[in-house]
Amino acid sequence: MPEKYHIKTQPVPPRRPRIGKHGVVDWREDCARCHNCVKKACVYDRYRQEAEYIRNLSDVEALFFDCMGCFSCVQDCTKGLLRLSINPEYERLGNSYWKPDIIKTTWLQAETAKIPVSGAGYRGPFSGQGFDSMWTDMSEIVRPTRDGIHGREYISTSVDIGRKPPFLVMNGNKSTACPPLVSIPMPLIFDLSSPVYTLPKLDSIIEQTAADTGLIALMDSRYRPAEDAHLENIAFYLGPDSEAVPDAMLKKTRLVEIADSPDVAKRIKAIKKTHPEIVVAIRVELTDAGIGRAIELAGLKEIEVIHIVSDANGNELAAQKPRFIKDMIRQIHTTLIDKGIRDEITLMAGGGIALPEHLAKAIICGADLVTINLPLLVALECHLCDSCEPGTTCPAKLENIDFNYGVGRMTNLIAAWHDQLIELMGAMGMREVRRLRGDVGRAMFFENLEEEAFGKLYGKRKTD
Q1: CATH number for the domain including 412?
Q2: Is residue 231 situated within a structural domain?
Q3: Comparing C-alpha atoms, which of 111, 99, 86, 87 is closest to residue 381?
Q4: Is residue 17 part of a domain?
Q5: Which residue(s) pair with 259 in the sheet?
Q6: What's the domain range around 375?
Q7: 327 contacts: CB under 8 Å, gap ≥ 6
């Protein structure tokens, strides 16, 4: 059995005051000062921590918001003085898709590298837009041999990137040569930085994180790594007007991505002439014509990898009524199955992947692996402000990022995502992430369940 993939982590505390969700308000004027005060009995020891925090308070904005929301003190106070309040600063984080709960969860994972647990449990909607309308099947969770990270069984999360032949052709005692493949230990690649958010230069931090985790980071063609040894963890992006990558440097990489264009076949041929063993991905934006273009490219024998990209919220680009990325992935995946060429192509999907569960759900919908960028930024305590512009004050002070802090937080985040992927696969009874691709039997979709339950009574749901 091969050695299990493991990421070395250590806690990396935040640089800035925490912006938590809950804070307990205590009305002292009516307090009976019971000797067995419920706050002192906090199972998370927040009362003592709060007292120490306030004693050393230096900033009026740095109030204590580390309550776990278990409601124990609120329910047990004999005078009914305690109330659970929501931090207004917390509610201003993110946007309608990147909600405060997602940002807080990402912060905790980046700090501790652990799977976050809330004392209040899940208190959100059981259905919603996007990935929230999809549930994974945990029917195997009761089996003692399927116990995830701590199990005796090996659960593989590695994936192969590249074109696979539809069948082997034997020539005497030898088979025909297989196309080049790139193997990475987790179905995840770091995408190009989002143009929406004006950031300090984080490329060196992302480069080191990719090297430490064994993954691959997409970089602009002008980027030059700090160490040549990291080149196998870098994939250069070649846009229409990108600067050329030196041949000596390109030969040390395993993957390169080019922008979609009418002459992609010629560009691939030119790259392969320099580096025959490199795998070339085509970046296709999910506009109105994006799905058709991805399907068209998959039919060309020169194409190895297709990288479909939506906007940061997972929506179709430049559309009045945009579709969500999970639906677009499913359409591309099922169409390629109908054409009999799905297993030959690697499909990467980017945009709207905010949580580890989104990674798994995108693979279930038909992607081989996903790409992310904003979660890495949020790991550095970014608030995802809607007014991120040059010259404006950054509440997270991203311009003062320490290198070791940045690498530590990003590495912790990837480790937490990997652990959650393993737990999810263990609960499904899956031992290999490659088998999860397109297995919609491992998931339930709200629209399908609604149609089965109410379609015969009320007909189809009206769509605008």
Answers
A1: 3.20.20.70
A2: yes
A3: 111
A4: no
A5: 283
A6: 148-450
A7: none
Answer yes or no: is 33 within a domain. no
Write the burial class of residue 45 (CB in 10 Å: 0-12 exposed, 13-18 middle, 19+ buried): exposed
Residue among 109, 79, 13 at smallest CA distance from 405: 13
Domain presence at residue 46: no
Provide the 3-class DSSP secondary structure of residue 356: helix
Compute the distance between CA of residue 394 and CA of residue 407 in angstroms, rounded to an integer. Answer: 20
Task: State the amino acid at position 189 in one-letter form.
Answer: I
Digit-coded pLDDT (tens) for 425-455: 888 888 899 999 999 988 999 888 888 888 8
The closest alpha carbon to 120, from 43, 50, 61, belongs to 43
Q: Read off the pTM.
A: 0.90
Complete DSSP assignment for 31-81: ----TT-TTTT-TT-HHHHHHHHHHT---TT-----B----HHHHH-TT--
Residue 183 parent element (H or E): strand 181-184
Which amino acid, 308? I
Count structural domains, the chain. 1
Other Cβ atoms closer than 10 A to 403: 11
**How far is it, in rounded angstroms, from Cα 345 to Cα 303?**
8
Q: Give CA–CA dist 251/66, Å, rounded.
A: 49
Rg for the chain, CA atoms, rounded: 24
Specify which of 197-201, 300-304, 456-460 reaches the highest per-range mean pLDDT.
Answer: 300-304
Rounded Cα distance between 317 and 390, Å, is 25
H or E segment and range at residue 207: helix 203-213
C-alpha–C-alpha distance, residues 375 and 387, integer Å: 18
- Please calculate the CA angle 59-61-65 and round it to the nearest 5 degrees: 110
Beta bridge partners, 255, equal 235, 279
Chain centre distance of CA 12: 20
